TrEMBL record:
This is Probable tRNA sulfurtransferase. Belongs to the ThiI family. The lineage of its organism: Bacteria, Bacillati, Bacillota, Clostridia, Eubacteriales. GO terms for biological process: thiamine biosynthetic process; thiamine diphosphate biosynthetic process; thiazole biosynthetic process; tRNA 4-thiouridine biosynthesis. It is found in: Cytoplasm. Pfam families: ThiI (PF02568), ThiI_fer (PF22025), THUMP (PF02926). Catalyzes the ATP-dependent transfer of a sulfur to tRNA to produce 4-thiouridine in position 8 of tRNAs, which functions as a near-UV photosensor. Also catalyzes the transfer of sulfur to the sulfur carrier protein ThiS, forming ThiS-thiocarboxylate. This is a step in the synthesis of thiazole, in the thiamine biosynthesis pathway. The sulfur is donated as persulfide by IscS. GO terms for molecular function: ATP binding; CCA tRNA nucleotidyltransferase activity; tRNA binding; tRNA-uracil-4 sulfurtransferase activity. Its EC number is 2.8.1.4. It comes from the Bacteria. One of its GO terms (cellular component) is cytosol. Pathway: Cofactor biosynthesis; thiamine diphosphate biosynthesis.
Amino acid sequence: MNASPAPQEIFLLKLGEVVLKGQNRQSFEDKLLANVRRRVKNCGSFQCSLRQSTIYVEPQGEDCDMEAAWDACRQVFGIAAVARAVPCEKTVDAIVEAARTYLADAFAVAKSFKVESKRADKMFPMNSIQLSQAVGGDLAELFPHVAVDVHTPDLTVFVEIREKYAYVHTPSVPGAGGLPIGMGGRAVSLLSGGIDSPVSSWMMARRGVELEMVHFVSPPYTSQQAQDKVLELARLLTAWTGRLLVHIVPFTEIQEEIRRNCPEEYFTLIMRRFMMRIAEAIARKANAGALVTGESLGQVASQTMLALGVTEDVTSLPVLRPLIGMDKVEIIRMSREIGVFDTSILPYEDCCTVFTPRHPATRPRLEDVRQAEAALDVESLVQKALADETWVRVKSTDPARI
């Protein structure tokens, strides 16, 4: 058997929820295609095109980093499945030759195989079953040591007949799912150094929401390592979201004023009310339409139903809480899956742990909290914190900070 040069590998990205859109589908597809192009740009020169609910990602040179591009494609929201494939002419002989060459290593270790075909081009003279039988018969002759097994094969050869070419590919793997970032509006996400807020940010990004992040620091009670940890969490999220703007807001004076002037049981609630006011002001400047938090109902004292009502009383923006019905085990599992868990558990405290009350109020009355807060010059404290705000733009190509 004469060796043939390996066909040029490409990626097939199958659209997910986008295909269910009606008259707005074109705008979703345009945004998704733009997002894919931007994400693979750092991996080399790729041509990205969309046909028949599939995005084709084709390298334009030998120096393309295919593994990096593969990882990037799997982390683009809006893609349901990703497959490695090779194109060939739409003939049985060409398909068989492509499979023989491209899947030689897989056939070398497999004990059984089958061919599974799809015919998007209805002008092709064979139906799917006929094509699978023809290709499978020829491959069985080429690889006599591999038995045909249509029920539980070791190897499945996928063949797709499309508009321009036939494609031979390996089994698809799941994509990121969701909707293209930018199609769900903009929001500001409160990013702490814990497990919950990076997961909640990821979940909202998966619904197409473009995010800016806000993080509160309280030196000397919180360290530079704690801030670097949060920026590293943001950097890890950019593998999914693209670059992120992180607003850094000083919070020491507010927390000290709360400690000096307010009842201890309300420390955390009043602190979070300040956070919501500041986050809303940042959201207004960023033309964002909502706030995002990592709160889960009943997880801690400040996340009871009454406490959540007290917290969001100070903002007129919607407060999105994607983790609200999840338990900690589920959140930790997701944190591991998206690659932020190991950084989230690093032992650097954030400002949420400063001046934690010994006996926090779990059934607070809004009127009592408002009265306790009246001892503070709320507007002045908020404006001073906003005046001292700084920001950092984080990219996936940045070096790790921790």
